[in-house]
Amino acid sequence: xxxxxxxxxxxxxxxxxxxxxxxxxxxxxxxxxxxxxxxxxxxxxxxxxxxxxxxxxxxxxxxxxxxxxxxxxxxxxxxxxxxxxxxxxxxxxxxxxxxxxxxxxxxxxxxxxxxxxxxxxxxxxxxxxxxxxxxxxxxxxxxxxxxxxxxxxxxxxxxxxxxxxxxxxxxxxxxxxxxxxxxxxxxxxxxxxxxxxxxxxxxxxxxxxxxxxxxxxxxxxxxxxxxxxxxxxxxxxxxxxxxxxxxxxxxxxxxxxxxxxxxxxxxxxxxxxxxxxxxxxxxxxxxxxxxxxxxxxxxxxxxxxxxxxxxxxxxxxxxxxxxxxxxxxxxxxxxxxxxxxxxxxxxxxxxxxxxxxxxxxxxxxxxxxxxxxxxxxxxxxxxxxxxxxxxxxxxxxxxxxxxxxxxxxxxxx
Length: 413
Known about the structure:
Blueprint lengths: L11 E5 L3 H13 L3 E5 L2 H10 L4 E5 L7 H10 L7 E6 L4 H10 L3 E4 L4 H55 L5 E4 L2 E8 L7 E7 L4 E9 L4 H13 L11 E4 L2 E4 L2 H15 L6 E9 L4 E7 L5 E3 L5 E3 L17 E5 L5 E5 L1 H4 L10 H11 L6 H15 L8 E8 L4
InterPro entries: Bact_Sigma-Reg, CheY-like_superfamily, PPM-type-like_dom_sf, PPM-type_phosphatase-like_dom, Sig_transdc_resp-reg_receiver
Pfam families: Response_reg, SpoIIE
GO molecular function: phosphatase activity
């Protein structure tokens, strides 16, 4: 019977020796132990046999004509095989230099001739342990490879889905530029990843008034993006009957009190959004004829006015984010844009953007960027603002979503 350690691991052994008598002795011992035995008279014949048979262990004489056991071992190791083969050299050599050379070319073990059966059995048992570990490792590597392949396929599928989701999220910002009355409105949305938690938009109220909103959902990724999609429905310009910022007035619509809208969104978020996410909000209306602007601020960065003379002002008192606390109230603020003034509603992706040294842009850096783009108008101004932010950040990916609304007020009458 084969040694217990050899079960299933070593099934077929190849004996290579130019001595027929030596081959027969070894084959008889191995067969008695339950191994399947192949014989070869030379290294060349052994290499041919290995092409057609699975050989788990090789017993090869060192001294053979034409091709020595060491030369055969070197060629054996060079073969492309799907499993490891244990190689034992049979030798009468005892010099350490010769043994070291055998190990260098790939031999695993040595047996001194004449071979004692108990020593042979011990060496085969040791080889079986090595082969068992090697095959277990091969199986685990195959499992890892298959798992990585499956994960890669899943990643590619997810990546394709996220690319489509990014397109859909960008489609939520239907108009990137709108001109109405004396106001020109430009919108910018740039997620940090495939999809993000920022959203900006505008919706018509009547012939003179326009609604604006900027949202920044906590966190990043798919969940935040899904919340922005839900909020886009609440503030839709395409479906005024679903817009919580509008109320029916006869056959037309009028603006709902902004503080009430923020409070309603807070209730909806607390009651319906089964998530730990919350969001900041800047909701505003602008009379595009007179320049009157009203807004509520719910944790969103302060709106910035860049006056025609270059002076910069910050408005609002902050307010509580939406969906964080129950029964909170919000305050409406009203101001006027004058001829040549510019209003910017920016996400914190601007002021909290770090440079390569970890220093944040903050309000001082933002003011420098705004002065740099003071002569640029329309969407180009926002793109130039982002370019300035990229230069500050060192042309790396922004760590947070970047979004903005810019209103330029220029009287024409």
